[in-house]
Amino acid sequence: MKLDSTVSAVVTGGASGLGAATARALAAKGVKVAIFDLQEEKGKAIAEELGGVFCECNVTDDASVDAAFAKARAAIGQERILVNCAGTGNAIKTASRSKEDGSIRHFPLDAFNWIIQINLVGTFRCIAKSAAGMMTLDPMADGERGAIVNTASVAAEDGQIGQAAYSASKGGVVGMTLPVARDLASENIRVNTILPGIFDTPLLGAAPQNVRDALAASVLNPKRLGNPDEYATLALCMIENGYFNGEDVRLDGGIRMAPR
């Protein structure tokens, strides 16, 4: 897909981290960008910086997602690109024993479901609604109607202690990539997924330096945290390369996560 001012994109979770880097990379190519996020102040600032539009969006809510797509399409036109970066995590053992009194508790199911609803169902909700919009477009000169990039995690394959919900949600994103690509193949809409490793995003921004250093040291090569711009580079490659389809690609410096 050729990226220029005739193309529009939606980036969920675009107000910070991987999403913000991708939004900037797309805008640098001339693409008109809509930022979907719950962080209004940051989202509006990035949208203004890029000459795009901010759309407040809760990916777990149908009405919120519908309203965000309607606002984006009214402002910049029907998107041909969707990049799903909205997501979150938690760390709770499936069942655990208190060190203080020996009491036993299990993973609260509402906390498990919350992660699934944001990371997995929220991603699919945006895919389905965006793909339906892309199908209204005429194919471009290269025959394409659209391209979708999702964000999973290396935890989909190397989930650590306490990551049952997070790993399940990201494993679901990986698992649905190929069937969704097959669903949309006849409409010339491609779908790919990135599995990032440990990236220097706001999620890690508050971590003590010794923790950040230990995480960087665990990467095979190079021994550092990933840069969000490196994620953006791969996302744009997946969008621009018309033969990239139905793939799940780790971007992790060769790391294989230990149990903890």
Automatic annotation (TrEMBL):
Entries under Pfam families matching the protein: adh_short
Enzyme Commission number(s) from the entry: 1.1.1.178
InterPro entries for the chain: NAD(P)-bd_dom_sf (IPR036291), Sc_DH/Rdtase_CS (IPR020904), SDR_fam (IPR002347)
Family annotation (SUPFAM superfamilies): NAD(P)-binding Rossmann-fold domains
GO molecular function, one term: 3-hydroxy-2-methylbutyryl-CoA dehydrogenase activity
PANTHER family: 17-BETA-HYDROXYSTEROID DEHYDROGENASE 14-RELATED (PTHR43658:SF8), SHORT-CHAIN DEHYDROGENASE/REDUCTASE (PTHR43658)
Family to which the UniProt record says this protein belongs: Belongs to the short-chain dehydrogenases/reductases (SDR) family.
Protein name per UniProt: 3-hydroxy-2-methylbutyryl-CoA dehydrogenase
Species this protein is from: Sphingopyxis granuli
Gene: hadh3
